[in-house]
Amino acid sequence: MKIKYIRNVVLALVVLTLVSLVSFSFGQKSQTVSSGTDDQLNLSMMWKVKDKLSQLYLDKSKMDKTKMEYGAIEGMVAALDDPYTVFLPPSQNKSSNEDLAGQFGGVGISLGYKDKTLAVMSPVPKTPAEKAGIKAGDLILKIVDKEKKVDKDTAGMALEDAVNLIRGKVGTEVTLTLLREGGKATFDVTLKRDNIVVPSVELEFKEQAGKKIAWIKMYKFTDELNKQWPEIISKIKKEGGANYGGIVLDLRNNPGGFLDTSVMIASDFIKEGVVVKQESSDGTIQTYNVDSSRGALLNDKLVVLVNGGSASAAEILSGALKDYNRGKLVGEKTFGKGTVQQPENFSDGSGLHITIAKWLLPNGANIHKVGINPDIEVKPTTDPNSKDDLQLNKAIEVLLQK
Predict the structure, then answer these.
(1) pTM for the full model?
(2) Residue 312 is a catalytic residue
(3) 350 is a catalytic site residue
(4) How many whole angstroms separate alpha carbon 148 and alpha carbon 337?
(5) Sheet of 244-250: strands edge to edge?
(6) Given the residues 96, 122, 323, 394, the one annotated as active site
(7) Which of 93, 146, 179, 347 is deepest in the core (most CB within 10 A)?
(8) Can you list the domains of the chain with their CATH numbers?
């Protein structure tokens, strides 16, 4: 199957878009903006407000034309009341693009929303956030940064605004006020920013009951994963040996990434069929089928690990594997992000991030705000001093039973 060169991004932290943006300038007084259809925006009130500000506002030095243009566009997009659809001025768009590039100064949190409240989708492994005990699903209610003179509640805050506030210079601190699911009281966590390098995938072999298990820790669906995946397959084939027991595919705390990367991975485990369908606003459905030229791991035993930090592309992959009974899902219910965003960067460095479709599992289900339930539910240990991975242990147990 040939994937279109335009890449669908199903990532909650970085939601980018591909649409035509109607542009307008504060230097011209158009009354309406037309998209070529019957739908028109009446902008007369905006021009009236702009004129009043120009005439009456006390500090004329703050009348920054570019900022006002961006602000008007931001407000128009925000009126859609979709936290994943936003307009980003150049500086914010740069931060957004840095995420999939894989390196930045921050604390190691992938962000999303739970019922329109800013939430931790997943802590990035081996980062300040994970070391401080921050968990997927924690609600972020407030962000405080004394050095930046920031003290803001997150109610109504756009995703990229939150990203910009939490990221910063390496070595500086940011304090987050959190509320954990089931908790009655908020608590503060102060994190020292570090240079965050987001890994894509790691392979480790585990020995148990005389069998060698390939533990694939897949952190994000990035371009880097595309490059590393053939090497992972090669190592499994080379080092598995006669006592090879199969694969534990670990998608815990994987916030997603490129849709076509998840289709590629699925195509090495599933022989044929639909991996995911994408339904647009006009009802048009685009189908992503298994790439029949792949199939390197069709006969390998498989168990998949998921939790509340498994989102977007990770849910596409785990959902397809579950629907085809290719491997049992072990762990906890996934995050529940079933909408699709596509990227467009504009010449001034800004970007428009828009939800263009919803995706459907092979069985036709859309799991947005619902998530995917595991076949076998296993909660992690509640002992902060324990290094015992109960979910991984159960996954290996289930694999060896197959």
Answers:
(1) 0.72
(2) yes
(3) no
(4) 32
(5) 201-208, 211-218, 244-250, 302-306, 328-331, 376-377
(6) 323
(7) 93
(8) 103-197 (2.30.42.10), 201-401 (3.90.226.10)
Residue 208's contacts (CB-CB under 8 Å, 6 or more residues apart) are 245, 396, 400
- Residue 138: which of 107, 96, 110 has the closest Cα? 110
pLDDT in the model for residue 385: 66
**Which amino acid makes up residue 295?**
G
Q: What is the pLDDT of residues 49-89, one digit of tens each?
A: 989 999 999 998 989 989 999 999 889 998 998 888 889 88
Of the listed 312, 318, 328, 394, which one is catalytic?
312
Residue 337 is a catalytic residue: yes
CA distance 236 to 143: 43
217, 277, 337, 394: the active-site residue: 337
Q: What pLDDT, in 10s, does the model give residues 220-274?
A: 998 889 999 999 999 999 998 889 999 999 999 998 988 999 999 999 999 999 9
Read off the pLDDT of each residue in 141-162 and give the average, rounded to a whole number. Answer: 92
Instruction: Specify whether the CB–CB gap between 307 and 391 falls below 8 A.
Output: yes
